[in-house]
UniProtKB/TrEMBL annotation, chains A, B:
Name of the protein: DUF4445 domain-containing protein
RACo-like middle region domain span: 85-244
RACo C-terminal domain boundaries: 247-496
Pfam families found in the cross-reference section: RACo_C_ter, RACo_linker, Raco_middle
Highest rank taxon of the organism: Bacteria
InterPro entries linked to this entry: Corrinoid_activation_enz, Raco-like_middle, Raco-like_middle_sf, RACo_C, RACo_linker
Location of the RACo linker region domain: 6-81
């Protein structure tokens, strides 16, 4: 397996009366002897002397693939093949996570994540886009904010491993279309405005130093399929390898937006749509991100609500996974009905305030009827994407061998609870798989395997995009999904069974 | 004929519900429709918005060839195909001359030359090399000095034409191996020290901005064949097209060093050697460069020396072309003999001072016996190169259809005088051709014709290098050439005839 960078050790003969080839030619000939054609950068030319002589012509060259050819980006004395490093970076709107890879052994050496320095410009992407719209100076601020966050990660990695960007050849990044627009100093308003034609969707390999990232080679940005199906999804698909399997699989990335891909090695149907901020703790009065003080696990036992709080501290609010468990428990215990309405007679914890019902899930913290309504709308949007795609493709749930849920949601949310509230389809639990940070995994995969570039082209070629918003009966389906788990309980046999058991 | 840059005008349809391709894809598809595959730079991605919309998708893209592929380096609104510019630059050790070309019409718009900002570091290259040897900081000073001289030229051109580097795509440079080493921040000591293996001899296409030259595309450096046969010679060969002809031709570039190529489309034999500073006015007591106040033309009429002075001013010294005419006239009038020794009885202008003879060629300015001796050694070195190469290749002068003399020497020196002193071979005068600044011409040729790249490879492939210093009888031949025109006068029938005529 050959990655997008190589380190080649050469033992060359030095110049003599009989052989007065240039240092450059000597090295290129050495590489050619190994079947590698390369092109030397200005930087390497400047390093040839006195390095080659001092190293007695035993040297290691760094090669970076630029999509077409190998570029000699660095030269070091001696055999440094084992010091062969690269980065994979997931550029999220909230956090930017980087991994340092040993490209020789294929081992991940360290991972560091930092909150995006873009957050002060707006927690959501749209605010950031409006901040810098038609103002190149402000656009540059946002670009610098992404770059600086990446550099924060790299610095942290260097502190832990002693390996800094100067020792790395390539970087692979994956991010949604808007984040990549920010990264490359492009206006991102197009991502959210009709006709959704973005500026650039296949940035390819860009010189790292031109971007402000001091690696010796290139920053590769995963390409996007469309405005809402960005490089993070492509990278995620590469990670879970749907496109390589015979069995049909599903890749679902759900957050403020939802992206869904169904397919196998023969076809890939994809769609994307807005879900709403509720899944990430937004739009819920006491909602918060999954950090210290957030309720992330909820059980109702003997009429009491038992919460787990991140950091084992006093609860300050509730995050996405906590909300889902809370709603599932409220429903299974009959404290809310199938339409998600509070049943105050079922518990003293349900109280009325200013004409609204609410439940006190932790000391002094309430989950309101409005929060419930909002959340159910969001989960309806998400589950309808799945339902709609299945119907359109004529594929039944039974045919699906794996339903991958990407991202923080898939990682932290309890599958059982997610099925109970109708967020995930009701299928065997072992087929519901958390894909983790698939976007980051896919970035690392390309770093270590150049063949992935061909896979990416293949995936882009195969992907058929379905615009959800464009379909009228999508809205009808979504209304039907605004119940727990669904107006049609027959679609959720395991939930139906659970309800029956509880009634006993 | 297609150059190494192109400007393509595209009239594209804007994004719509039905066609939401990215701006990038839209442009690349437009190019593909014209059979061009291209890669977009970060800089162009950043310019897409609002440029494309504002131009209503009628735009012109700049394409720069990088040796392998077309790179989209710029984008402009509207049809700007006629504003298609590039530079050719001859990087000499004394002067750096740049030409601005209109790459659409193939017309040279302006030429500007400036004294190299490296001169303060040493008039000769070796002094400069020793100045910065093993000191990267000083090496950078010398690099910056070359770049700044190029920028001086470009600024002058901009002042005259209104066209600056930002409007130019490519730059082709030609210079000797040492100058190219300076330009690319490489140690150049190797050029003059055994075993004469240089750092890099095929720099190729390097991003202009990386070098500090703000064109949108690349700076191409003509490759060198060896330490003494640099890119300036390759470029000169491309200019005079020896490698394309059936007839045998000679390319001779003479200055402090001499480079010589004999060949045709089937073979190219080349050699190089030191000639000495005398030809450029150095090592002569009153010698100076060909600038204001320099004697550049000399005749002896009725016992008087008549001089022409550059700028029609009072004479301050004598330049190379003046020296050659002076010596030729001294010889033809019998004021010096065949060994170049003054014959004081022939003229009152020849006087003795401190045991040395000298001639007063202009008021208060003297040419000494030592000057003569030094100059004759230099011309012997130069003419022996020619003689030696002819002998080695088994080619006779009669077979040569054109003897090109490149550079300032070829341009300013009177052919007749140069034959008389034995500097040029005695052949029909119309076959002795001044090639002018062939290095600069060749640079412009590549700018306008991409096929030249293949020619360069072909020339490098064909060139057979003969090391003069390595040959023992080269020295014997040189001694025989230390006479005017030569110890064997039979080799110079036209000079012999002239002498006989004068005697009558």
């Amino acid at each position: 397996m050959e990655g997008i960078s190589r380190k080649i050790y050469l033992e060359l003969s030095g110049p003599s009366e009989e052989d007065s080839r240039s240092s450059q030619q000597r090295i290129l000939d050495g590489l050619e002897g190994m079947g590698i054609e390369g092109r030397m950068t200005l930087r390497v030319m400047g390093k040839l002397y006195p390095l080659c002589e001092e190293a007695q012509w035993k040297l290691t060259v760094s090669l970076a693939w630029d999509g077409i050819q190998w570029i000699l980006t660095d030269i070091e004395p001696g055999d440094t093949r084992t010091a062969h490093y690269g980065y994979a970076v997931d550029i999220g709107s909230t956090t930017v996570v980087a991994r340092l890879w040993n490209c020789e052994t294929g081992e991940c050496l360290w991972e560091a994540g930092n909150y995006s320095r873009q957050i002060p410009y707006g927690t959501d992407i749209l605010t950031r886009i409006f901040y810098c719209k038609d103002d190149p100076q402000k656009r540059k601020e946002l670009k610098d904010a992404v770059i600086d966050t990446i550099l924060d990660d790299l610095k942290e990695i260097e502190e832990k491993t002693g390996i800094g960007p100067e020792q790395c050849i390539q970087m692979v990044t994956a991010g949604n279309t808007a984040m990549i627009h920010f990264l490359l100093d492009m206006d991102a308003f197009c991502v959210f405005s009709t006709p959704y034609a973005v500026r650039a969707d296949r940035p390819g390999f860009l010189p790292g130093r031109e971007l402000g990232i001091p690696i010796s080679g290139f920053v590769y940005c995963y390409p996007g399929k469309s405005n809402y199906l960005g490089g993070d999804i492509l990278s995620g698909l590469v990670a879970v390898e749907i496109h390589k399997r015979e069995e049909i699989q599903v890749f679902f990335d759900i957050g403020t937006n939802g992206e869904l891909v169904i397919g196998n090695r023969d076809f890939l149907i994809c769609g994307a749509g807005a879900a709403g901020p509720a899944l990430e703790g937004g739009s819920v009065r006491t909602g918060m991100r999954a950090c210290e003080g957030a309720v992330d696990r909820v059980k109702i036992r003997e009429g009491k609500i038992l919460c787990h709080v991140i950091g084992e501290k006093e609860a300050k609010g509730i995050c996405g996974s906590g909300i889902i468990e809370l709603i599932a428990e409220l429903f299974l215990n009959g404290w809310i009905n199938i339409l998600g309405k509070f049943q105050p007679e079922q518990s003293d914890l349900i109280t009325e305030q200013e004409g609204s019902f609410r439940v006190e899930y932790a000391h002094g913290l309430y989950f309101w009827q409005e929060d419930l309504d909002e959340f159910i709308k969001t989960k309806a949007a998400a589950s309808t994407m799945v339902e709609y795609m299945f119907r359109e493709s004529g594929i039944s749930l039974k045919e699906v061998s794996g339903f991958y849920v990407a991202g923080a949601f898939g990682k932290h949310v309890d599958k059982e609870a997610a099925v109970t509230i109708g967020m995930y389809p009701d299928m065997e639990r072992e087929r519901l798989i958390s894909a983790g940070n698939a976007s980051l995994d896919g970035a690392g995969k390309l770093l270590l395997d150049r063949q992935v570039l061909a896979e990416i082209d293949e995936i882009l070629e195969k992907m058929v995009y379905i615009q959800f918003g464009a379909v009228e009966d999508f809205l009808h389906m979504m209304v039907a999904a605004q119940a727990i788990p669904h107006t049609d309980l027959e679609r959720y046999p395991s939930v139906k069974k659970k309800l029956e058991e509880r009634k006993k």
